[in-house]
Design brief:
By secondary structure, the protein is of the alpha/beta class. It contains two helices and seven strands, in the order βαββββαββ. The strands form two sheets. Strands 3-2-5-4 form a four-stranded mixed β-sheet. Strands 1-6-7 form a three-stranded mixed β-sheet. Strand 4 (53-58) and strand 5 (61-65) form a beta hairpin. It is globular and about 35 Å long. This is DUF779 domain-containing protein. InterPro entries: DUF779 (IPR008497). It comes from Paracoccus nototheniae. It holds the Pfam family DUF779.
Length: 115
């Protein structure tokens, strides 16, 4: 199962957003528009689906991913970072001239012993 962590820059931006909006949560849907951008919402402003999976927390904020993306990325650790730019339309990082970005690192997966 994959895990989620955050860079110091992401933790700083989360703290700024929480100071402005209160507790937040993240969702990584893998959608067509902002597929590599995790969306940041005020807690309670995003309705989770039955298949959404909680990967963990970053900066005290719960981080969810769609079930299909969790399956596709099950051997990948997600690293939430910050880059210059505009956030997703409904994400709380929008308008701050920097946005969250998901990076990944392949986990070690043990397979069959080579012949």
């Amino acid at each position: 199962m994959s895990t989620v962590t955050a860079t110091p820059a992401a933790l700083r931006l989360i703290a700024e957003i929480v100071a402005d909006h209160g507790p937040v949560m993240f969702h990584q849907s893998g959608g067509c528009c902002d597929g590599s951008s995790p969306m940041c919402y005020a807690q309670g402003d995003f309705r989770l689906g039955e298949r959404d999976v909680r990967l963990g927390e970053i900066g005290g904020a719960p981080f969810y991913i769609s079930g299909s993306q969790a399956e596709a990325w099950k051997h990948t650790d997600l690293i939430i970072d910050v880059v210059p730019g505009r956030g997703g339309m409904f994400s709380l990082d929008n308008g701050r001239e920097e946005r969250f970005l998901t990076r990944s690192e392949i986990c070690s997966v043990e397979g069959p012993t080579p012949l």
